[in-house]
Design brief:
By secondary structure, the protein is an alpha/beta fold. It has 11 helices and 10 strands. The protein has 2 domains: 186 residues, Nucleotidyltransferase, domain 5 (2-Layer Sandwich); 102 residues, Rossmann fold, CATH 3.40.50. The strands form 2 sheets. The protein has a 6-stranded mixed sheet with strand order 3-2-1-4-5-6, sandwiched between helices. Strands 8-7-9-10 form a 4-stranded parallel sheet, sandwiched between helices.
Length: 311
């Protein structure tokens, strides 16, 4: 088939994106796993948050003799040179970690495109939710140890392989049609973000929607967002949430704080793994899925899908 994928998964020590403490990489060629890479990483600051430790089990003692990211990069840079199709489950998180680590050590950013395997799973599979363990169970894939970077990368690879096989078994036309509809992103465009918002700052930093008003007088009533109700959840990477909200009201959209039956669009950004529930979803996304299941017409958009429709 000639398609070469690289699946990457990071775990972090704390809320700072540059605090990568482990990485797992899987190489797929001709829809088979042909190489695996895993290492612990010593973060620039040895501060492990209890929440993060409870997720992946890695502690300060584990990484005392581990290489720092600049040393790791000499081994893995070959996977990000544009020869591979890069993907990750909830890719925005892993791409933000990669960019922050590169910046920390003043390493030149590589130029490659990536897509999100989570978005692929959402488009292909009807599951109770789309956390990696649920999709693996749906596809009868064994997930040996959740939140171990290598095992998560292997599981994501198995989901990708199964998805490609299913599409090709239908027809090559189905395969190319599906992947041409996936949101492709350039790593260079990933916003440099220092850290995820902590639980205490989550609401204090949230824009007050009552303070956001249109900056224009006349709206294009033919715009897809005109007179539609919008809710945002998670952190956006290419623009601030307030800026995104401003763009919505400037095309005639209506901002809401919570998801309800009147919601038309829920825009989902990157979620803090230490805050969201065990199913990998924010409370807003969970509520939206419940309403969709009951027959409500709510569209859940990734940041990339939101920007594409906005334009």
């Amino acid at each position: 088939m000639g398609l070469n994928f690289v699946v990457v998964d990071f775990e972090t020590a704390n809320a700072n994106y540059n605090s990568a403490c482990s990485i797992g990489i899987i190489v797929i060629s001709d829809n088979k796993i042909v190489d695996k890479y895993y290492t612990l990483i010593q973060p620039p600051e040895m501060e492990f948050h209890p929440k993060n430790i409870s997720i992946h089990g890695i502690t300060t003692a584990d990484v005392m003799n581990a290489p720092k990211f600049d040393e790791v990069w000499t081994d893995i840079s070959k996977y990000f040179n544009g020869d591979y199709i890069v993907t990750a489950y909830n890719a925005v998180f892993d791409m933000c970690v990669l960019k922050a680590c590169l910046k920390e050590y003043s390493i030149e950013y590589p130029n490659f495109e990536y897509f999100c395997s989570l978005q692929l799973a959402k488009k292909l599979y009807k599951c109770e939710n789309h956390k990696l363990s649920t999709v693996c169970e749906h596809l009868n894939i064994c997930l040996d140890c959740a939140h171990n970077a290598l095992f998560d990368a292997v599981a994501t690879s198995e989901v990708l392989i199964a998805s490609v096989d299913n599409l090709i078994n239908k027809s090559w036309q189905s395969f190319f049609h599906f992947f041409s509809g996936i949101n492709w992103n350039n790593f260079i465009d990933v916003k440099e973000v220092k850290s995820l918002k902590t639980k205490t700052s989550k609401f204090s930093n949230r824009p007050n929607i009552s303070s956001i008003s249109p900056s224009i007088d006349n709206f294009d009533s033919s715009h897809i967002f005109f007179n539609k109700n919008f809710v945002f959840t998670g952190n956006l990477t290419t623009l601030d949430r307030k800026e995104a909200m401003q763009k919505v009201v400037d095309v005639g959209g209506i901002l809401k704080n919570s998801v309800s039956k009147s919601t038309n669009y829920l825009v989902v950004g990157i979620q803090d793994k230490t805050i969201i529930g065990s199913d990998g979803l924010s409370s807003k996304e969970r509520r939206a899925l419940e309403l969709i299941e009951s027959g409500q017409s709510i569209k859940i958009l990734s940041e990339e899908e939101f920007l594409k429709l906005l334009a």
